[in-house]
Amino acid sequence: MTQPGQTYAWCFSHGGMHHFTGQPWCTAVWVPFTATNEPDALAAKQHAYGDARFLHELPVRQQLEVIEIRETWT
Ligand SMILES: [Zn+2]
What we know:
Elements: E1 7-11, E2 16-20, E3 30-33, H1 38-49, H2 60-71
Antiparallel strand pairs: 1-2, 1-3
């Protein structure tokens, strides 16, 4: 379980993992993971999105998916 106010998210705009401890400070395109530490979050990202670091490296279908997930987190 993710602790309240703590979120690991892969950012496809900055090409790296973000660790939010409160209100997300990045307004770009990122996907949150239900991980309690960074290695777990990276493993989840690798599993779901492979080696893609930036949005354009994903297949179009996954790009849309990522944008949809992002829009549910305001
Ligand atoms: Zn970012």
